[in-house]
Amino acid sequence: MTAAVDLRNFALTVHVTSSVGLLGSIAAFLALAVAGMTSQDVHMVRAAYPAMDLIARLVIVPLALTSLLTGLIQSMGTPWGLFRHYWIVVKLLLTVFASVVLLVKIELVGHAARLAAEPALSLADLHAAGIQLVVHAAGGLIVLLVPTALSVYKPPGMTRYGWRKQYGKHSPLA
Ligand code: HEM
Hints:
By secondary structure, the chain is mainly α. It has one domain (3-167). It has five helices and no strands. The protein has helices at 3-38, 42-76, 86-116, 123-153, 160-167. The protein is elongated and about 70 Å long. The site of protoporphyrin IX containing FE has 23 residues, from helix 1, helix 2, helix 3 and helix 4.
């Protein structure tokens, strides 16, 4: 095996591990968010939010950024290209969208973790803090299932730019 193939396989391994790991970490986050929103055990609810804060900052954000970065490397470093195939453009848009929402909304998790440390707050107040977190985690999970399926099926369909790159001035779409 040549060094170039080794490097390409290594980059793909990092991409698949971070991307699929991202889905798993969001699923764990969602399980805790549902517990935070519904559990009648106050100790469970107070423990769930700080745990989610850790998972979000130390696992979900790094995995999302790694998935995005290694996806860009997979696209630009191989004949796939970044803007030649619709399935790759859709993956890029959905992953960027999910990462932006994640970074914009991450403070919600820190806020819930701080509420969990307030002894005066009732169980109902703590439950309420979980609603947005459940919605965002479930939404993120559903959105990111699309890039996963697209990666496996790789549906045909080339962009106009892709046709031009592949067939030059002989492209029917040139
Ligand atoms: C959470 C989002 C993502 C998930 C779950 C995901 C998942 C995957 C998986 C499972 C593969 C392996 C498919 C195979 O080898 O048959 C793959 C390959 C690939 N991904 Fe992603 N990916 C994501 C984001 C991205 C992004 C943002 C880009 C581009 C900017 C991208 C570009 C690629 C490319 C070009 C390949 C093909 C690599 C090759 O076969 O040489 N991915 N992805």
